[in-house]
Amino acid sequence: MKQINEYPDYFARFYDVIYHQIRSGVDARYFLNKIKNSEGKILEVGVGTGRFFTEALHAGADIYGIDVSKSMIDILKKKVDTSEHFRIYTGDACTMRLNKTFNLIVAPFRVFSHLIEVSDHLKLLDNIWEHLEQGGTFIFDLFIPNPELLHKGMDKVMDFEGEYEPGKKLRRITSSYSDIVSQILDITMLFEWEENSQWLSREWKLKFRYFFRYELLHLLSLSKLNLVNIFGDYNEGSLNKKSKEFILVCRR
Q1: How far apart are CA 102 and CA 104, in angstroms?
Q2: Domain locations along the chain
Q3: Which CATH number fits domain 9-144+212-251: 3.40.50.720, 3.40.50.150, 3.30.390.10, 3.20.20.70?
Q4: What is the pLDDT of residue 4?
Q5: Which residues share a beta bridge with 247?
Q6: % helix / strand / coil in the chain, to the nearest 5?
Q7: Which of 15, 41, 67, 188 is the most buried (most CB within 10 A)?
Q8: H or E, element range at 176
Q9: For residues 43 and 35, is the Cβ–Cβ distance under 8 A?
Q10: Which parts of the chain sit beneath pLDDT 70?
Q11: What pLDDT does residue 90 have?
Q12: Residues 93, 45: contact at Cβ < 8 Å?
């Protein structure tokens, strides 16, 4: 059965603030360059609040987006004119039927890890193939597991502290523990923020799948997609023992 990590409303609310600080500098240039240099329609799977989508749309890209989380999509729709809402879908990319094909499909920021079962990994890959034009490209990324961190886990680490509005503090405290046999991370995120002169807190638990190199190669070999290359960073450097990212480029 597919694991759907529906983002709670408070996570969606603070997503842009947190990930602008801890993520945008890592992958933004790479994916935005791929999107802006594409000559046809583009689909962003796991579009979320539009970290790439909004900038690409303003730059003139013929981009569409889909996300399973309604709370994230609701925020994205507030960022773009209502005349562009036809580009935004709430739904599951494993089962989507969009009645159009794309020259480029991207799934940034570990979208693939939200699916737990192998059957759903293959459903997603083959459905991506169905939505690509002949010769179209699919790019997705995943983190390379750190064996030491998998063994030790992460216990109540504050990975964000800042303001979500002027004078209003926000912090996130994250714990993560690995089931190495199942290759699943059990993650707990504690959000604490100031509002109406008091501190509020909410806790969110989710499961996250991690992958190894040859497992990914085998998965792709079972799918309809053809693997073009696998890189180790967002500069498309070679995969090596120092790499922290899998960047997989596939084609129909």
Answers
A1: 5
A2: 9-144+212-251, 147-209
A3: 3.40.50.150
A4: 53
A5: 141, 231
A6: 35, 35, 30
A7: 67
A8: strand 168-179
A9: no
A10: 1-5, 24
A11: 97
A12: yes
